[in-house]
């Protein structure tokens, strides 16, 4: 999807809807990195239960799936978030009813701009090709994600 040089919140929502549909997923989040407080700030979401909205508004780097992807600067995947015992997912994440989940960092070169995450309602192992496609989607919007 082509985004304008200065995307609006509606543009980001349309971008996320497109990505979620392209990967046949039911949930998605797009976060912007805020270096002032070292948190990921929610830009757009799709399919997230209302009770989780306060939790996902600002995510510390290193916490949860998105925070881990940002910290590691690599994709973080859970085949089944509902049964995962790795400790990566935060407590409330199970309320999404998502099972297969994938979060990738949004990078502009080495600069962290945010994270992009998607989820399915069934257990799912994302392929290396799918991971690379999501990374490419994230990279394509990286420079526009940070405030101008």
TrEMBL record:
<protein>
    <submittedName>
        <fullName>GAF domain-containing protein</fullName>
    </submittedName>
</protein>
<dbReference type="InterPro" id="IPR003018">
    <property type="entry name" value="GAF"/>
</dbReference>
<dbReference type="Pfam" id="PF13185">
    <property type="entry name" value="GAF_2"/>
</dbReference>
<dbReference type="InterPro" id="IPR029016">
    <property type="entry name" value="GAF-like_dom_sf"/>
</dbReference>
<feature type="domain" description="GAF">
    <location>
        <begin position="20"/>
        <end position="133"/>
    </location>
</feature>
């Amino acid at each position: 999807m082509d985004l304008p040089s200065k995307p609006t919140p509606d543009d980001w929502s349309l971008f996320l809807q497109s990505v979620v549909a392209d990967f046949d997923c039911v949930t998605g989040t797009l976060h912007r990195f805020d270096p002032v407080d070292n948190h990921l700030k929610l830009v757009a979401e799709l399919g997230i239960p209302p009770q989780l909205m306060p939790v996902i508004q600002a995510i510390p780097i290193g916490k949860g799936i998105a925070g881990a992807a940002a910290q590691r600067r690599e994709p973080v995947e859970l085949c089944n978030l509902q049964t995962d015992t790795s400790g990566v997912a935060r407590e409330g994440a199970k309320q999404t009813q998502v099972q297969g989940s994938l979060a990738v960092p949004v990078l502009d070169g080495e600069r962290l701009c945010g994270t992009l995450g998607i989820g399915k309602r069934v257990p799912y192992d994302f392929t290396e090709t799918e991971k690379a496609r999501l990374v490419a989607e994230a990279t394509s919007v990286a420079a526009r994600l940070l405030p101008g």
